[in-house]
Amino acid sequence: MSNQGSNEERFWESFHGPNMGYIEEQYEKYQNDPSSVDPSLKEVFDKQGAPDWMKSEETVQTNGAAAPSSADISKVTSTMKLVEAIRRNGHLQANIYAVGSDERPKTKLLDPDYYGLSDEDLKQIPAEWVWPNSPVELKNAYEVVQTLKERYAGTISFEFDHVNNDDERQWLQQKVDSGNFQVNLTNEEKKILLKRLARVEGFENFLAKTFVAQKRFSIEGLDIMVPMLDYLVHSASTDEIDNIMMGMAHRGRLNVLAHVLGKPYDIIFSEFHHSADKELVPSEGSMGINYGWTGDVKYHFGAYRKIESGEQSATRVTLSHNPSHLEYVNPVVEGFTRAAQDDRSQRGYAQMDQDEAVGVLIHGDAAFIGEGVVAETLNMSDLPGYRTGGTIHIIANNLVGFTTNRSHGRSTRYASDLAKGFEIPVIHVNADDPVACLSAMAFSYEYRQHFHKDVLIDLVGYRRFGHNEMDEPRATQPQLYQEIDDHSTVAAIFEQQLLKEGVVEEGALDEYKEAVETKLRNVYNDMGEHETEEPDVKERPGAVERPLDEIETAIDLERLRSLNEGMLKRPEGFNGFKKLEKILQRRGKMLDEGNKVDWATAEALAFASILEDGIPVRITGQDTERGTFAHRHMVLHDVETGETYCPLHGLEQANASFDIHNSPLSEAGVIGFEYGYSVQAPEALVLWEAQFGDFANAGQVIFDQFVAAGRAKWGEKSNMVFLLPHGYEGQGPEHSSARLERFLQMGAENNWTVANVTSSAQYFHLLRRQAALSNQEEARPLVLMTPKSLLRNQRVAVEGSYFSDGKFQPILRQPGLTKETKKEKEKVKSLLLGTGKIMVDIEDAVEKAENNKFDTIDAVRIEQIYPFPESMLADILETYPNLEELVWVQEEPQNMGTWYFVEGILHKLLKENQIHRYVGRPHRASPSVGEPNIHKTEQNRIIYEALQMSKGGNSNEGN
């Protein structure tokens, strides 16, 4: 696949004299019958067409010499095949394995014998015949083959034949062909590199000796990764890129923290507690690093560092915190990167600058191919709402996953093969060749900057010790570790190379390592020890403890009308879908007296007012532009041109960006991305909407490890909103429950708000309250159960006065049952408590009931479930002097939903002779039944039992 070789005119320039006559004769035969010429010539004519002299009808005179045989032409075409095979398949013979058996299938494609060629044959063929305009002076095809093997099959090799863009593929080939991607170090730079490797190795050796049998997930075997990152940081800093966003798992993390992020050695040492009752304390003046109050293990923490790159600018390097779920940090880092690239200060979509930030993801070889979130993240790489201008991926390839061999861990030849499906160029490089590794990084960075697309380095090394230094790898990989035991470190190998080159003298590495040991020992000796009799968790920040009740969210009615009117304007000449426009225009009267504002309009008004306040908004999800249930319609389509228009982009009052994107069919990846975005852009309101609430199941790792616990573990703040459609309407087990119980189970330390609201105004105020937390210490995520059928239920719509007065209410009185007077309340014996749609169904049933009185029953709706409004409920209970029972009613099975969360709270509120009981579905393995009629029967039973009605009813009621 040589772009030079495909140049027709240059190809035919190689033929002279009798060759031309012979070719002319053969081409005439080919024209009459293609099968009549030698297959090798047929292939040439198929590809090149007629010789250029025959096209121009020039008369060719031969000198009478004998014409070459078809065998001679066959050797030329065979050589061309060999040259292309080297470019395409050089990686199959490349020297990329520092240790371990080469498990790649053996190939003959790079052997001249396979093509019937000898070295002598190759030497007889002029170089320009098979590599026209080669970037180096070459005499013959033999030299061409040797040169290309050096470029494509050395300690660095390439795969880019899967890249379909012609410009990219030709650029990649030209870079490799020319060899000008290679880093050329001066002798002084080589010494600096050797010293850097000595520091990397010495740090690990010091930890091993000082903190015996402690987990550290050492970098040894992949030591060169630190200088590679150094090279990247330097390049980005030189280009005045503001941010480098990095994500990586455990392997080598402490070394990267120390040497790339600049985390002080004594801080790292202090995180190794060497005895149960003593704590290492960093020396006075060491840089402090703030984490959460519960903390995390040392190899999960991240850090950031500023690299000065001139008087006016600095590059900030950030390493994301990452739990043990390895690759789940990938989308989080991508979210960091996009947030750093977006300018959110103006209305419309945020304006992205791809060179404001660069993403770097360091993967494990087993995890890259094994974890599905990797594919989800790669798929986002060129989508409008998620692209980040190219991520540099590095596979820290140590040949084994914990104790699992490659043959048991993947079905592909390379750990990197997944990337090829996304047309990402792959560079394989031997981790024992430092200069080749730096060249791989230089190549990758230049490609990223040129094309703003992802690129991957497969850094093939090994793991010198077990998975975590406490494992014995010789039990499961005995042969591999016999080889590793006998294998020199990369620093020692590089020293030998420099000795041969005369760059350093004998003993240089020992001298460098001794200096590292002395420095680390001095740092350690300067640290103190404190007795720790009863260590305890740190105090939570005061802002985390504060309730959110005092935040004002009401908006003047005239301001709301102005915003509503602005959203109904359309650009001149815009041809909207007429049926839809009729529906949308009705929103213009919803704030008028006597009318009600539905859910979709309340949301639009909330977003519009938030933008007017200068707070950017970003909302994404599957089908979020229209809304899964066709309620939002925030992106309109011109029926004639297909162009789109977002009403919030044309809103004159908007003072910040509004980003809305349909996401790919991904949960874990997209949730992680949006979480990362919200952390990096704390001034913005970031929302993710599930198509159905239970789709959030697929993002459970992100919820568990990042959203719920990120602040407690790492001090990572987010005020992200999760919109999870939830409600039992007969749509079956997979489209009923957003698994509310899971979010309540994880609710603690005010880590988030969990709500299930039943009015459009409540939704409006809740969104505005969340936006008010932007950039505040009180920031926390919001998990909101949102409606499906209730979206258009008039019981959810409310008058405009609810928006212009008041604020979000954690508890609402139940319409149709609420007792107002003291006398009415004296009759109440049962107080119904519930949340969400079931309470609207009860409201509907009460209104339709004909022969039932409800004098002894009252009800309230718990709109905010966590933190539970316990004191507010206690005050309400005081108003019922004769109350006998609290009845918790829910649609979810008893082992799901809210019951197990509220049961203990309700028990504490009971007075003497009072009880609490449950009304709802029984314990179930599945969230709901699948048959709609059974659902209706169950739903009606719950309602009638809650209301203590004397008879059943029509199974269609309330549904």
Structural class: alpha/beta
- Summarize model confidence as the mean pLDDT: 90
Helix content: 25-40%
What is the terminal-to-terminal distance? 64 Å
What does this structure look like?
The protein has 959 residues and is of the alpha/beta class. It has 37 helices and 28 strands. The chain has an 8-stranded mixed beta sheet with strand order 1-12-13-9-8-2-5-4, with helices on both faces. A 7-stranded mixed beta sheet has the order 18-15-19-20-22-21-26, with helices on both faces. A hairpin with a 6-residue loop joins strand 16 (636-637) and strand 17 (644-645).
Question: What topology does this entry show?
Answer:
Blueprint: H1 8-12, H2 18-32, H3 39-48, H4 52-55, H5 70-89, H6 119-124, H7 127-130, H8 141-152, E1 156-159, H9 166-178, H10 187-210, H11 225-238, E2 243-248, H12 253-259, H13 265-270, E3 278-281, E4 303-308, E5 314-319, H14 329-341, E6 342-343, E7 351-352, E8 357-364, H15 365-370, H16 372-379, E9 391-397, E10 400-401, E11 404-405, H17 406-409, H18 417-420, E12 426-430, H19 434-451, E13 455-460, H20 478-485, H21 490-501, H22 508-525, E14 528-531, H23 542-545, H24 557-567, H25 578-585, H26 599-612, E15 617-621, E16 636-637, E17 644-645, E18 658-662, H27 668-680, E19 685-689, H28 700-707, H29 710-714, E20 721-725, H30 740-745, E21 753-756, H31 760-772, E22 782-786, H32 801-804, E23 811-813, H33 822-827, E24 830-834, H34 837-848, E25 857-862, E26 864-866, H35 870-877, E27 885-893, H36 899-909, E28 915-921, H37 932-947
Parallel strand pairs: 2-5, 2-8, 8-9, 9-13, 12-13, 15-18, 15-19, 19-20, 20-22, 21-22, 24-25, 24-27, 27-28
Antiparallel strand pairs: 1-12, 3-14, 4-5, 6-7, 10-11, 16-17, 21-26, 23-25
